Amino acid sequence: MTEEMLRERFLASLPETDGSSCPPPDDLWAVAAGELPFHRVQALLGHATRCAQCAEALGILQEVRRASAELPARTPPELEGRRRAMGRPLVPLALAALAGVGAWVVLRMPAPEHAVVERGLAATPSLHAISPPALPARDPVLRWSEYPGASSYNVTVLTPDLVVVHHAVGLSAHELRLPDAVAGRARGAELLWTVDAVLPDGHAVASPTFQVRLQ
Amino acid sequence: MARTRGGDERPHSSNPELMRIRQVLIRAVERHCPPGLAAHREDFVQMALIRLLDQPAGEGTATRGASYLWRVAYTVVIDEIRRFRRQQRQVQQLATGGGTVPGPEARSAILECIEALQERRRAAVSLHLQGFRTPEVAAALGWTEKQAENLVYRGLADLRVCLEGGEE
């Protein structure tokens, strides 16, 4: 039996568990990073070799760790200055590339008819956007549905490349008026926003990610 | 960054590292999760990155180094996937009137054979079958690469013998 066949057979044999005894993901990272003593690695592997979800988490872990290891080593400051000077002629090229990436990120989004990224389950109460996907930049008010039992709401507004431009916490109303500074900067552009409904016991229910264009 | 009532200051600088992390996470979730779950990959990663940016610890990542950012991103995306699964299970349980998820006691020949391996070989083979490469097995278990290679090799040989014995 080849190694590939063994691996496939192994992964196919892993049972789905209820997840209640899965180790925290940071412990899985710590295993891969060699931060844990052998007996703890053994204990974690004892579970992970009997849990499909943990095998999945370990698969994702390896890809993430390998990608993070591909990062260039940190450049010493004295070389950094020299490289910056050498790189100046390339700045327009880099800006053009950045603009291209930005345009791709914006254009690849679906048309903002029902600009909702589906998330969660239809059978459970969910948060949805009430405000339209296009808002006037002079008075942009984000509105969302009431979540049963929520004591407050937190709202995060981001650019399509995930830069947080506004964050509001502890809102009692189901709406948020974007500050002028944010609206002014985002005029003509698209923003992403999410709402967390905070329940009295401290748990939070996350909304899907909505899109809004300020006109 | 702007602030609303009750709001707090957040870093406003663009972070190309986050873009790279996002790409890698989306690809990894797509590859390793079942299709029904992978369909939500962009959501998991999006929510994870939002939570990452939301964490006070995330603001100090520049001083902790890029690898810390990757680590936190990984943990929050796994948390998101687990949270989604919990919701799915709750809905299933409501629909069926009880739990139907098989527990970790489910048996199979290959799992029993792995369990029967000598402990160092078992650890090496477990990581190997989970997709760890030899240097990664060595790093995880604090061995030299030669030791890891040897233990994986011997462990796999034992595993094959055990499986053949069980299938005769």
Number of helices of chain B: 9
Q: Quick check: average pLDDT of chain A?
A: 76
In whole angstroms, the N-to-C terminal distance of chain A is 62 Å
Structural class of chain A: alpha+beta
Low-confidence stretches of chain B: 1-13, 57-61, 99-106
Mean pLDDT of chain B: 79
Q: In which range does the helix fraction of chain B lie?
A: over 70%
CATH architecture of the largest domain in chain A: Sandwich
Quickly count the domains of chain A: 3
**What's the CATH class label of the largest domain in chain A?**
Mainly Beta
Fold and architecture overview:
By secondary structure, chain A is of the alpha+beta class. Chain A has three domains: 67 residues, no CATH class; 31 residues; 81 residues, Immunoglobulins (Immunoglobulin-like, Sandwich), CATH 2.60.40. Chain A is built from seven helices and eight strands. In chain A, strands 1, 3, 4, 6, 7 and 8 form a six-stranded mixed sheet that branches. In chain A, a hairpin with a 5-residue loop joins strand 3 and strand 4. The longest helix of chain A has 18 residues. Chain B has two domains: 81 residues, no CATH class; 59 residues, Arc Repressor Mutant, subunit A (Orthogonal Bundle), CATH 1.10.10.10. Chain B has 168 residues and is mainly alpha-helical. In chain B, helix 6 packs across helix 9. Chains A and B meet through helix 1, helix 2, helix 3, helix 4 and strand 3 of A and strand 1, helix 1, helix 3, helix 5 and helix 6 of B.
